[in-house]
UniProtKB/TrEMBL annotation:
This is serine C-palmitoyltransferase. It is a single-pass membrane protein. The lineage of its organism: Eukaryota, Metazoa, Chordata, Craniata, Vertebrata. One of its GO terms (biological process) is ceramide biosynthetic process. Keywords: Acyltransferase, Endoplasmic reticulum, Lipid metabolism, Membrane, Pyridoxal phosphate, Sphingolipid metabolism, Transferase, Transmembrane, Transmembrane helix. It comes from Bucorvus abyssinicus. The gene is Sptlc3. The keyword Transmembrane helix applies. Residues 160-520 form the Aminotransferase class I/classII large domain. Gene3D superfamilies: Aspartate Aminotransferase, domain 1 (3.90.1150.10), Type I PLP-dependent aspartate aminotransferase-like (Major domain) (3.40.640.10). It is an enzyme of class 2 (transferase). Pathway: Sphingolipid metabolism; Lipid metabolism; sphingolipid metabolism.
Amino acid sequence: MANPSAVCNGHLHHQKQNNNLLKSGIYKKNGITKGMKKNGVSNGTLYKKTFIEHFEQAPMYVAVLTFLGFGVGTVFGYLRDFMRAWGLEKRNIAAEREQQKDFVPLYQDFENFYTRNLYMRIRDNWNRPICSVPGPQFDLMERVTDDYNWTFRFTGRTIKNVINMGSYNYLGFAETDVNALKTVTIELEKYGTGICSTRQEMGTLDKHVELEKLVAKFLGVEDAMVFGMGFATNSMNIPALVGKGCLILSDELNHTSLVLGARLSGATIRIFKHNNMQSLEKLLRDAIIYGQPRSRRAWRKIIILVEGIYSMEGSIVRLPELVSLKKKYKAYLYLDEAHSIGAVGATGRGVVEYFGMSPDDVDVLMGTFTKSFGAAGGYIAGRKDLVDFLRTHSHSAVYATSMCPPVAEQIIRAMKCLMGLDGTTQGLQRVRQLGKNTRYFRRRLHEMGFIIYGNDDSPVVPLLLYMPGKIGAFARRMLEKNIGVVVVGFPATPIAESRARFCVSAAHTREMLDTVLNALDELGDFLQLKYSRYSKSSHPELYEETRLEFED
Protein backbone atom coordinates (compact mmCIF):
# COMPACT_ATOMS: atom_id res chain seq x y z
CA MET A 1 0.00 0.00 0.00
CA ALA A 2 1.30 3.43 -0.87
CA ASN A 3 2.44 5.77 1.84
CA PRO A 4 1.23 9.37 1.89
CA SER A 5 3.41 12.03 0.36
CA ALA A 6 3.54 15.78 -0.02
CA VAL A 7 5.96 18.32 -1.41
CA CYS A 8 5.73 22.07 -1.13
CA ASN A 9 7.84 25.15 -1.53
CA GLY A 10 8.73 27.25 1.47
CA HIS A 11 10.81 27.44 4.61
CA LEU A 12 10.80 24.86 7.37
CA HIS A 13 8.47 25.67 10.18
CA HIS A 14 6.57 23.68 12.76
CA GLN A 15 9.33 21.06 12.46
CA LYS A 16 8.31 19.21 15.59
CA GLN A 17 4.71 18.89 14.43
CA ASN A 18 5.74 17.54 11.05
CA ASN A 19 8.23 15.06 12.50
CA ASN A 20 5.31 13.57 14.41
CA LEU A 21 3.35 13.35 11.15
CA LEU A 22 6.24 11.56 9.47
CA LYS A 23 6.44 9.07 12.31
CA SER A 24 2.69 8.55 12.06
CA GLY A 25 3.01 7.69 8.37
CA ILE A 26 0.98 10.55 6.88
CA TYR A 27 3.66 11.79 4.51
CA LYS A 28 6.13 9.83 2.44
CA LYS A 29 9.80 10.77 2.44
CA ASN A 30 10.52 10.62 -1.25
CA GLY A 31 10.73 14.17 -2.51
CA ILE A 32 13.33 16.92 -2.53
CA THR A 33 14.85 18.42 0.57
CA LYS A 34 13.81 21.95 1.37
CA GLY A 35 16.73 24.12 2.29
CA MET A 36 19.41 21.81 0.84
CA LYS A 37 21.72 23.97 -1.22
CA LYS A 38 24.25 23.58 -3.95
CA ASN A 39 26.29 26.59 -5.02
CA GLY A 40 24.17 28.67 -2.70
CA VAL A 41 20.83 27.88 -4.43
CA SER A 42 18.07 26.28 -2.40
CA ASN A 43 16.23 23.31 -3.90
CA GLY A 44 13.08 24.89 -2.56
CA THR A 45 13.22 27.38 -5.44
CA LEU A 46 12.34 24.59 -7.86
CA TYR A 47 8.71 24.95 -6.79
CA LYS A 48 7.01 28.29 -7.25
CA LYS A 49 3.77 27.21 -5.56
CA THR A 50 2.52 24.83 -2.91
CA PHE A 51 2.53 21.23 -4.10
CA ILE A 52 0.54 18.83 -1.90
CA GLU A 53 -0.25 15.17 -2.47
CA HIS A 54 -1.99 12.64 -0.25
CA PHE A 55 -1.35 8.91 -0.06
CA GLU A 56 -2.54 7.98 3.40
CA GLN A 57 -2.02 4.41 4.55
CA ALA A 58 -5.10 2.55 5.74
CA PRO A 59 -5.27 1.02 9.23
CA MET A 60 -3.85 -2.48 9.50
CA TYR A 61 -7.22 -4.11 10.11
CA VAL A 62 -8.44 -2.84 6.71
CA ALA A 63 -5.55 -4.55 4.92
CA VAL A 64 -6.17 -7.79 6.86
CA LEU A 65 -9.89 -7.79 6.04
CA THR A 66 -9.19 -6.96 2.38
CA PHE A 67 -6.88 -9.94 1.89
CA LEU A 68 -9.27 -12.10 3.91
CA GLY A 69 -12.08 -11.10 1.55
CA PHE A 70 -10.05 -12.11 -1.49
CA GLY A 71 -9.09 -15.33 0.27
CA VAL A 72 -12.70 -16.28 0.99
CA GLY A 73 -13.67 -15.45 -2.59
CA THR A 74 -10.83 -17.62 -3.91
CA VAL A 75 -11.84 -20.61 -1.74
CA PHE A 76 -15.44 -20.43 -2.91
CA GLY A 77 -14.19 -20.00 -6.48
CA TYR A 78 -12.34 -23.30 -6.32
CA LEU A 79 -15.41 -24.92 -4.76
CA ARG A 80 -17.62 -23.70 -7.60
CA ASP A 81 -15.08 -24.84 -10.21
CA PHE A 82 -15.20 -28.29 -8.59
CA MET A 83 -18.99 -28.28 -8.78
CA ARG A 84 -18.90 -27.21 -12.44
CA ALA A 85 -16.44 -29.97 -13.29
CA TRP A 86 -18.78 -32.59 -11.81
CA GLY A 87 -21.93 -31.15 -13.34
CA LEU A 88 -23.36 -29.89 -10.05
CA GLU A 89 -23.44 -26.31 -11.32
CA LYS A 90 -24.12 -25.03 -14.81
CA ARG A 91 -20.97 -24.13 -16.76
CA ASN A 92 -21.54 -20.70 -18.30
CA ILE A 93 -17.96 -20.05 -19.32
CA ALA A 94 -16.49 -20.77 -22.75
CA ALA A 95 -14.89 -24.23 -22.87
CA GLU A 96 -13.06 -26.40 -25.39
CA ARG A 97 -15.08 -28.93 -27.34
CA GLU A 98 -14.26 -32.57 -26.89
CA GLN A 99 -13.22 -32.82 -30.54
CA GLN A 100 -10.50 -30.21 -29.92
CA LYS A 101 -8.92 -31.82 -26.88
CA ASP A 102 -5.68 -32.53 -28.77
CA PHE A 103 -5.32 -28.92 -29.95
CA VAL A 104 -3.52 -26.15 -28.10
CA PRO A 105 -6.26 -24.81 -25.76
CA LEU A 106 -7.77 -21.43 -26.54
CA TYR A 107 -9.17 -21.01 -23.04
CA GLN A 108 -6.92 -21.44 -20.02
CA ASP A 109 -9.09 -22.34 -17.04
CA PHE A 110 -6.66 -21.13 -14.40
CA GLU A 111 -5.95 -17.84 -16.20
CA ASN A 112 -9.68 -17.07 -16.27
CA PHE A 113 -10.23 -18.04 -12.64
CA TYR A 114 -10.42 -14.43 -11.43
CA THR A 115 -12.80 -13.44 -14.22
CA ARG A 116 -15.35 -16.18 -13.73
CA ASN A 117 -15.33 -16.36 -9.94
CA LEU A 118 -14.64 -12.83 -8.69
CA TYR A 119 -15.19 -10.35 -11.50
CA MET A 120 -18.51 -11.97 -12.51
CA ARG A 121 -19.97 -11.25 -9.10
CA ILE A 122 -19.71 -7.49 -9.68
CA ARG A 123 -19.68 -7.35 -13.49
CA ASP A 124 -22.94 -5.37 -13.52
CA ASN A 125 -21.00 -2.28 -12.40
CA TRP A 126 -19.08 -1.96 -15.68
CA ASN A 127 -19.92 -1.46 -19.36
CA ARG A 128 -23.25 0.16 -18.59
CA PRO A 129 -24.58 1.68 -21.84
CA ILE A 130 -25.59 5.34 -21.75
CA CYS A 131 -27.93 6.95 -24.27
CA SER A 132 -27.14 10.66 -24.08
CA VAL A 133 -24.21 13.08 -24.22
CA PRO A 134 -21.78 12.35 -21.33
CA GLY A 135 -22.18 15.80 -19.81
CA PRO A 136 -22.59 16.58 -16.09
CA GLN A 137 -25.67 14.36 -16.25
CA PHE A 138 -26.56 11.51 -18.58
CA ASP A 139 -29.28 8.95 -19.28
CA LEU A 140 -28.61 5.28 -18.64
CA MET A 141 -30.18 2.23 -20.26
CA GLU A 142 -31.48 -0.03 -17.51
CA ARG A 143 -30.44 -3.67 -17.68
CA VAL A 144 -30.95 -6.67 -15.41
CA THR A 145 -29.48 -10.15 -15.15
CA ASP A 146 -31.20 -13.46 -14.54
CA ASP A 147 -28.04 -15.57 -14.20
CA TYR A 148 -25.80 -13.66 -11.78
CA ASN A 149 -24.16 -11.33 -14.32
CA TRP A 150 -23.28 -13.92 -16.96
CA THR A 151 -25.74 -12.28 -19.35
CA PHE A 152 -27.84 -9.11 -19.31
CA ARG A 153 -31.15 -8.07 -20.82
CA PHE A 154 -32.48 -4.54 -21.30
CA THR A 155 -35.79 -3.62 -19.70
CA GLY A 156 -36.55 -0.82 -22.15
CA ARG A 157 -36.50 1.70 -19.30
CA THR A 158 -34.16 4.69 -19.23
CA ILE A 159 -32.72 6.02 -15.98
CA LYS A 160 -32.83 9.79 -16.46
CA ASN A 161 -30.52 12.56 -15.22
CA VAL A 162 -27.84 10.45 -13.56
CA ILE A 163 -25.09 12.71 -12.18
CA ASN A 164 -21.98 11.84 -14.15
CA MET A 165 -18.91 11.49 -11.90
CA GLY A 166 -16.98 9.16 -14.17
CA SER A 167 -16.40 10.81 -17.58
CA TYR A 168 -13.22 12.76 -18.38
CA ASN A 169 -15.30 15.78 -19.34
CA TYR A 170 -13.07 18.11 -17.35
CA LEU A 171 -14.00 21.40 -19.04
CA GLY A 172 -17.55 20.48 -20.02
CA PHE A 173 -16.99 20.57 -23.78
CA ALA A 174 -18.92 17.29 -24.19
CA GLU A 175 -22.16 19.08 -24.95
CA THR A 176 -25.01 19.21 -27.45
CA ASP A 177 -25.75 22.93 -27.49
CA VAL A 178 -26.72 23.82 -31.05
CA ASN A 179 -25.05 27.22 -31.02
CA ALA A 180 -21.80 25.82 -29.60
CA LEU A 181 -21.67 23.08 -32.23
CA LYS A 182 -22.62 25.25 -35.19
CA THR A 183 -19.12 25.23 -36.72
CA VAL A 184 -18.87 21.46 -36.20
CA THR A 185 -22.14 21.00 -38.09
CA ILE A 186 -20.83 23.14 -40.96
CA GLU A 187 -17.67 21.05 -41.24
CA LEU A 188 -19.71 17.84 -41.14
CA GLU A 189 -21.81 19.04 -44.07
CA LYS A 190 -18.70 20.17 -45.96
CA TYR A 191 -16.32 17.23 -45.42
CA GLY A 192 -18.51 14.32 -44.30
CA THR A 193 -17.58 11.90 -41.56
CA GLY A 194 -14.39 10.19 -42.73
CA ILE A 195 -11.15 10.66 -44.64
CA CYS A 196 -10.59 7.09 -45.91
CA SER A 197 -6.85 7.63 -46.16
CA THR A 198 -3.70 8.06 -44.08
CA ARG A 199 -1.88 11.32 -43.43
CA GLN A 200 0.96 10.39 -45.80
CA GLU A 201 -1.33 9.59 -48.70
CA MET A 202 -4.48 11.67 -49.27
CA GLY A 203 -5.57 12.15 -45.69
CA THR A 204 -4.13 15.57 -44.83
CA LEU A 205 -6.80 18.28 -45.03
CA ASP A 206 -6.69 22.00 -44.43
CA LYS A 207 -8.46 21.36 -41.11
CA HIS A 208 -5.54 19.22 -39.93
CA VAL A 209 -3.06 21.93 -40.86
CA GLU A 210 -5.16 24.56 -39.08
CA LEU A 211 -5.46 22.38 -35.98
CA GLU A 212 -1.73 21.63 -35.83
CA LYS A 213 -0.84 25.31 -36.07
CA LEU A 214 -3.36 26.10 -33.33
CA VAL A 215 -2.01 23.34 -31.04
CA ALA A 216 1.56 24.62 -31.49
CA LYS A 217 0.43 28.15 -30.68
CA PHE A 218 -1.58 26.98 -27.66
CA LEU A 219 1.39 25.08 -26.22
CA GLY A 220 4.01 27.68 -27.15
CA VAL A 221 6.16 25.33 -29.25
CA GLU A 222 7.47 25.33 -32.82
CA ASP A 223 5.25 22.65 -34.34
CA ALA A 224 2.74 19.90 -33.60
CA MET A 225 1.22 16.85 -35.27
CA VAL A 226 -2.23 15.42 -34.55
CA PHE A 227 -3.41 11.81 -34.68
CA GLY A 228 -6.83 10.19 -34.84
CA MET A 229 -6.47 8.05 -31.71
CA GLY A 230 -5.09 9.03 -28.31
CA PHE A 231 -3.89 5.54 -27.38
CA ALA A 232 -2.06 5.16 -30.69
CA THR A 233 -0.37 8.53 -30.22
CA ASN A 234 1.78 6.89 -27.57
CA SER A 235 1.92 3.29 -28.72
CA MET A 236 2.72 4.11 -32.37
CA ASN A 237 5.11 7.04 -31.91
CA ILE A 238 7.41 5.92 -29.11
CA PRO A 239 8.81 3.13 -31.37
CA ALA A 240 9.67 5.82 -33.92
CA LEU A 241 11.67 7.80 -31.35
CA VAL A 242 13.66 5.03 -29.66
CA GLY A 243 14.83 1.55 -30.55
CA LYS A 244 17.50 -1.03 -29.87
CA GLY A 245 20.43 0.41 -27.95
CA CYS A 246 18.23 3.03 -26.28
CA LEU A 247 17.10 3.12 -22.65
CA ILE A 248 13.58 3.96 -21.49
CA LEU A 249 13.05 4.96 -17.86
CA SER A 250 9.34 4.59 -17.16
CA ASP A 251 7.27 5.49 -14.10
CA GLU A 252 5.80 2.35 -12.57
CA LEU A 253 2.25 3.74 -12.87
CA ASN A 254 2.41 4.83 -16.51
CA HIS A 255 -0.60 4.24 -18.72
CA THR A 256 -0.84 1.07 -20.82
CA SER A 257 -0.35 3.07 -24.03
CA LEU A 258 3.08 4.21 -22.81
CA VAL A 259 3.94 0.69 -21.67
CA LEU A 260 2.91 -0.80 -25.02
CA GLY A 261 4.82 1.83 -26.99
CA ALA A 262 7.93 1.18 -24.90
CA ARG A 263 7.69 -2.57 -25.45
CA LEU A 264 7.12 -2.24 -29.19
CA SER A 265 10.17 -0.01 -29.52
CA GLY A 266 12.65 -2.79 -28.72
CA ALA A 267 14.50 -0.48 -26.32
CA THR A 268 15.63 -1.57 -22.87
CA ILE A 269 13.06 -0.62 -20.24
CA ARG A 270 13.72 0.11 -16.59
CA ILE A 271 11.09 1.13 -14.07
CA PHE A 272 11.38 3.74 -11.33
CA LYS A 273 9.08 4.14 -8.34
CA HIS A 274 6.11 6.40 -8.85
CA ASN A 275 7.08 10.07 -8.78
CA ASN A 276 10.20 9.13 -6.80
CA MET A 277 13.12 11.24 -7.96
CA GLN A 278 15.64 9.32 -5.86
CA SER A 279 14.70 6.10 -7.64
CA LEU A 280 14.93 7.83 -11.02
CA GLU A 281 18.28 9.45 -10.28
CA LYS A 282 19.76 6.10 -9.25
CA LEU A 283 18.71 4.59 -12.59
CA LEU A 284 20.09 7.59 -14.48
CA ARG A 285 23.40 7.44 -12.63
CA ASP A 286 23.74 3.69 -13.20
CA ALA A 287 22.88 4.12 -16.89
CA ILE A 288 25.64 6.69 -17.32
CA ILE A 289 28.22 4.73 -15.33
CA TYR A 290 27.62 1.21 -16.60
CA GLY A 291 26.12 1.78 -20.06
CA GLN A 292 24.53 -1.10 -21.95
CA PRO A 293 24.61 -4.65 -20.55
CA ARG A 294 27.51 -6.83 -21.70
CA SER A 295 29.06 -4.35 -24.12
CA ARG A 296 29.17 -1.45 -21.63
CA ARG A 297 28.78 0.93 -24.55
CA ALA A 298 27.02 4.21 -23.91
CA TRP A 299 23.27 4.22 -24.53
CA ARG A 300 22.25 5.76 -27.85
CA LYS A 301 19.45 7.66 -26.08
CA ILE A 302 18.01 7.79 -22.59
CA ILE A 303 14.36 8.89 -22.50
CA ILE A 304 12.15 9.36 -19.43
CA LEU A 305 8.44 8.55 -19.83
CA VAL A 306 6.01 10.19 -17.41
CA GLU A 307 2.42 11.44 -17.26
CA GLY A 308 1.17 14.87 -16.27
CA ILE A 309 -1.69 13.55 -14.12
CA TYR A 310 -1.82 9.84 -13.31
CA SER A 311 -5.35 8.67 -14.01
CA MET A 312 -5.59 6.04 -11.27
CA GLU A 313 -3.75 7.93 -8.52
CA GLY A 314 -4.73 11.54 -9.16
CA SER A 315 -1.11 12.56 -8.61
CA ILE A 316 0.75 15.22 -10.60
CA VAL A 317 4.25 14.65 -11.96
CA ARG A 318 7.04 16.44 -10.09
CA LEU A 319 8.10 18.26 -13.21
CA PRO A 320 10.59 20.78 -11.74
CA GLU A 321 12.67 18.01 -10.15
CA LEU A 322 12.32 15.85 -13.23
CA VAL A 323 13.57 18.59 -15.54
CA SER A 324 16.53 19.24 -13.24
CA LEU A 325 17.51 15.56 -13.33
CA LYS A 326 16.96 15.37 -17.07
CA LYS A 327 19.28 18.31 -17.66
CA LYS A 328 21.87 17.04 -15.21
CA TYR A 329 22.17 13.62 -16.89
CA LYS A 330 21.48 14.80 -20.48
CA ALA A 331 18.41 12.61 -20.92
CA TYR A 332 15.26 13.24 -22.98
CA LEU A 333 11.84 13.80 -21.41
CA TYR A 334 8.55 12.50 -22.87
CA LEU A 335 5.52 14.00 -21.09
CA ASP A 336 2.05 12.50 -21.56
CA GLU A 337 -0.51 15.20 -20.76
CA ALA A 338 -3.62 13.18 -21.59
CA HIS A 339 -5.35 14.08 -18.31
CA SER A 340 -3.55 17.34 -17.51
CA ILE A 341 -3.87 19.39 -20.70
CA GLY A 342 -6.83 21.69 -20.23
CA ALA A 343 -7.35 20.50 -16.66
CA VAL A 344 -4.51 22.27 -14.80
CA GLY A 345 -2.60 25.48 -15.27
CA ALA A 346 -3.93 29.04 -15.04
CA THR A 347 -5.17 28.93 -18.64
CA GLY A 348 -5.42 25.15 -19.07
CA ARG A 349 -2.03 24.60 -20.69
CA GLY A 350 -1.16 21.62 -18.53
CA VAL A 351 1.52 20.84 -15.97
CA VAL A 352 4.17 22.93 -17.74
CA GLU A 353 2.09 26.03 -17.07
CA TYR A 354 1.01 24.70 -13.67
CA PHE A 355 4.63 24.76 -12.50
CA GLY A 356 5.44 28.01 -14.32
CA MET A 357 7.99 26.32 -16.58
CA SER A 358 8.93 26.70 -20.23
CA PRO A 359 7.67 24.22 -22.87
CA ASP A 360 11.28 24.05 -24.08
CA ASP A 361 12.15 22.16 -20.88
CA VAL A 362 10.22 19.14 -22.22
CA ASP A 363 11.56 17.39 -25.32
CA VAL A 364 8.34 15.63 -26.36
CA LEU A 365 4.95 17.03 -25.37
CA MET A 366 2.13 14.56 -25.87
CA GLY A 367 -1.55 14.95 -25.08
CA THR A 368 -5.01 13.79 -26.08
CA PHE A 369 -8.19 15.53 -27.14
CA THR A 370 -10.43 12.86 -25.59
CA LYS A 371 -10.76 14.47 -22.16
CA SER A 372 -10.73 18.24 -21.77
CA PHE A 373 -11.66 18.93 -25.42
CA GLY A 374 -14.63 16.59 -25.70
CA ALA A 375 -13.36 15.02 -28.90
CA ALA A 376 -10.96 12.23 -29.97
CA GLY A 377 -7.33 11.82 -30.98
CA GLY A 378 -4.02 13.09 -29.70
CA TYR A 379 -1.00 15.24 -30.51
CA ILE A 380 2.76 15.34 -30.23
CA ALA A 381 4.40 18.75 -30.07
CA GLY A 382 7.84 20.23 -29.64
CA ARG A 383 10.70 21.30 -31.90
CA LYS A 384 10.04 21.44 -35.63
CA ASP A 385 12.73 18.88 -36.44
CA LEU A 386 11.06 16.42 -34.03
CA VAL A 387 7.65 16.85 -35.65
CA ASP A 388 9.08 16.67 -39.18
CA PHE A 389 10.77 13.41 -38.24
CA LEU A 390 7.48 11.96 -36.98
CA ARG A 391 5.62 13.01 -40.12
CA THR A 392 7.90 10.64 -42.00
CA HIS A 393 8.54 7.86 -39.48
CA SER A 394 5.42 7.67 -37.30
CA HIS A 395 3.54 4.37 -37.72
CA SER A 396 0.31 6.24 -37.09
CA ALA A 397 1.02 8.73 -39.89
CA VAL A 398 1.90 5.94 -42.31
CA TYR A 399 -0.82 3.38 -41.52
CA ALA A 400 -3.65 4.94 -39.48
CA THR A 401 -6.68 6.74 -40.89
CA SER A 402 -6.64 10.52 -40.44
CA MET A 403 -8.71 12.35 -37.87
CA CYS A 404 -12.20 13.02 -39.24
CA PRO A 405 -12.91 16.72 -39.99
CA PRO A 406 -15.86 17.25 -37.58
CA VAL A 407 -13.69 15.99 -34.71
CA ALA A 408 -10.88 18.32 -35.78
CA GLU A 409 -13.32 21.23 -35.81
CA GLN A 410 -14.59 20.33 -32.33
CA ILE A 411 -11.01 20.50 -31.03
CA ILE A 412 -10.43 23.81 -32.81
CA ARG A 413 -13.64 25.19 -31.32
CA ALA A 414 -12.72 24.15 -27.77
CA MET A 415 -9.10 25.30 -28.06
CA LYS A 416 -10.06 28.71 -29.44
CA CYS A 417 -12.46 29.05 -26.53
CA LEU A 418 -9.64 28.30 -24.08
CA MET A 419 -7.35 30.79 -25.80
CA GLY A 420 -10.03 33.50 -25.92
CA LEU A 421 -9.91 33.58 -29.72
CA ASP A 422 -13.70 33.25 -29.83
CA GLY A 423 -14.01 36.72 -28.36
CA THR A 424 -15.18 35.49 -24.94
CA THR A 425 -13.66 34.59 -21.56
CA GLN A 426 -15.75 31.43 -21.33
CA GLY A 427 -12.72 29.14 -21.68
CA LEU A 428 -10.87 30.81 -18.83
CA GLN A 429 -14.01 30.67 -16.71
CA ARG A 430 -14.26 26.92 -17.32
CA VAL A 431 -10.66 26.37 -16.22
CA ARG A 432 -11.21 28.39 -13.05
CA GLN A 433 -14.51 26.67 -12.31
CA LEU A 434 -12.85 23.26 -12.66
CA GLY A 435 -10.20 24.31 -10.14
CA LYS A 436 -12.84 25.54 -7.70
CA ASN A 437 -14.92 22.37 -8.05
CA THR A 438 -11.86 20.15 -7.64
CA ARG A 439 -10.61 21.82 -4.48
CA TYR A 440 -14.12 21.94 -2.96
CA PHE A 441 -14.84 18.29 -3.70
CA ARG A 442 -11.48 17.09 -2.35
CA ARG A 443 -11.70 19.27 0.77
CA ARG A 444 -15.16 17.98 1.67
CA LEU A 445 -14.08 14.35 1.22
CA HIS A 446 -11.07 14.97 3.50
CA GLU A 447 -13.33 16.49 6.12
CA MET A 448 -15.71 13.53 5.98
CA GLY A 449 -12.88 11.14 6.79
CA PHE A 450 -12.41 9.31 3.48
CA ILE A 451 -8.95 8.30 2.28
CA ILE A 452 -8.42 9.91 -1.11
CA TYR A 453 -5.29 9.86 -3.23
CA GLY A 454 -3.55 12.46 -5.32
CA ASN A 455 -2.85 16.15 -5.61
CA ASP A 456 -5.15 18.84 -4.27
CA ASP A 457 -5.40 20.38 -7.76
CA SER A 458 -6.04 17.12 -9.63
CA PRO A 459 -9.62 16.66 -10.97
CA VAL A 460 -9.05 12.88 -10.79
CA VAL A 461 -10.14 11.91 -7.27
CA PRO A 462 -9.61 8.26 -6.21
CA LEU A 463 -11.58 7.31 -3.08
CA LEU A 464 -10.24 4.12 -1.49
CA LEU A 465 -12.70 1.25 -0.94
CA TYR A 466 -10.14 -1.53 -0.31
CA MET A 467 -12.40 -4.55 0.32
CA PRO A 468 -13.66 -6.45 -2.76
CA GLY A 469 -17.19 -6.80 -1.43
CA LYS A 470 -17.54 -3.04 -1.14
CA ILE A 471 -16.74 -2.39 -4.82
CA GLY A 472 -20.09 -3.67 -6.05
CA ALA A 473 -22.06 -2.42 -3.06
CA PHE A 474 -20.69 1.11 -3.49
CA ALA A 475 -21.44 1.42 -7.23
CA ARG A 476 -24.91 -0.13 -6.95
CA ARG A 477 -26.03 2.06 -4.07
CA MET A 478 -24.69 5.19 -5.73
CA LEU A 479 -26.69 4.37 -8.86
CA GLU A 480 -29.77 3.92 -6.70
CA LYS A 481 -29.20 7.55 -5.70
CA ASN A 482 -28.96 8.51 -9.40
CA ILE A 483 -25.19 8.98 -9.31
CA GLY A 484 -22.95 7.25 -11.86
CA VAL A 485 -19.48 6.37 -10.61
CA VAL A 486 -16.49 4.37 -11.84
CA VAL A 487 -15.16 1.66 -9.51
CA VAL A 488 -11.78 0.04 -10.11
CA GLY A 489 -10.18 -3.07 -8.64
CA PHE A 490 -7.48 -5.64 -9.22
CA PRO A 491 -5.74 -6.09 -11.67
CA ALA A 492 -6.16 -2.42 -12.71
CA THR A 493 -5.06 -1.43 -9.20
CA PRO A 494 -2.96 -3.19 -6.52
CA ILE A 495 -4.97 -6.02 -4.99
CA ALA A 496 -5.42 -4.20 -1.67
CA GLU A 497 -6.27 -0.77 -3.13
CA SER A 498 -9.66 -1.05 -4.83
CA ARG A 499 -11.19 2.37 -5.30
CA ALA A 500 -13.87 4.58 -6.77
CA ARG A 501 -12.51 7.16 -9.20
CA PHE A 502 -14.33 10.46 -9.48
CA CYS A 503 -13.68 12.88 -12.33
CA VAL A 504 -14.68 16.43 -11.48
CA SER A 505 -15.94 18.67 -14.28
CA ALA A 506 -16.31 22.41 -14.74
CA ALA A 507 -19.87 21.61 -15.83
CA HIS A 508 -20.78 20.27 -12.40
CA THR A 509 -22.83 22.76 -10.41
CA ARG A 510 -22.34 23.20 -6.66
CA GLU A 511 -25.76 21.60 -6.16
CA MET A 512 -24.66 18.50 -8.09
CA LEU A 513 -21.46 18.19 -6.09
CA ASP A 514 -23.34 18.65 -2.81
CA THR A 515 -25.81 15.94 -3.85
CA VAL A 516 -22.91 13.57 -4.52
CA LEU A 517 -21.13 14.53 -1.29
CA ASN A 518 -24.26 14.03 0.82
CA ALA A 519 -24.75 10.61 -0.75
CA LEU A 520 -21.11 9.74 -0.10
CA ASP A 521 -21.37 10.87 3.51
CA GLU A 522 -24.37 8.63 4.07
CA LEU A 523 -22.93 5.69 2.16
CA GLY A 524 -19.55 6.09 3.86
CA ASP A 525 -21.21 5.54 7.21
CA PHE A 526 -23.33 2.65 5.93
CA LEU A 527 -20.41 0.78 4.30
CA GLN A 528 -17.86 2.00 6.88
CA LEU A 529 -15.57 3.60 4.30
CA LYS A 530 -14.27 6.50 6.40
CA TYR A 531 -10.86 5.02 7.14
CA SER A 532 -8.83 8.22 7.46
CA ARG A 533 -7.21 8.76 10.85
CA TYR A 534 -6.08 12.30 10.23
CA SER A 535 -7.81 15.59 9.65
CA LYS A 536 -6.38 17.84 6.98
CA SER A 537 -3.32 19.62 8.35
CA SER A 538 -3.24 23.40 8.41
CA HIS A 539 0.48 23.14 7.62
CA PRO A 540 0.69 20.47 4.87
CA GLU A 541 4.39 20.94 4.15
CA LEU A 542 6.60 17.89 3.83
CA TYR A 543 9.96 17.94 5.53
CA GLU A 544 12.27 15.39 4.05
CA GLU A 545 15.84 14.28 4.00
CA THR A 546 17.17 13.12 0.66
CA ARG A 547 20.48 13.17 -1.08
CA LEU A 548 19.31 14.70 -4.34
CA GLU A 549 21.44 17.52 -5.66
CA PHE A 550 20.36 19.65 -8.57
CA GLU A 551 22.32 21.87 -10.87
CA ASP A 552 21.53 25.56 -11.01
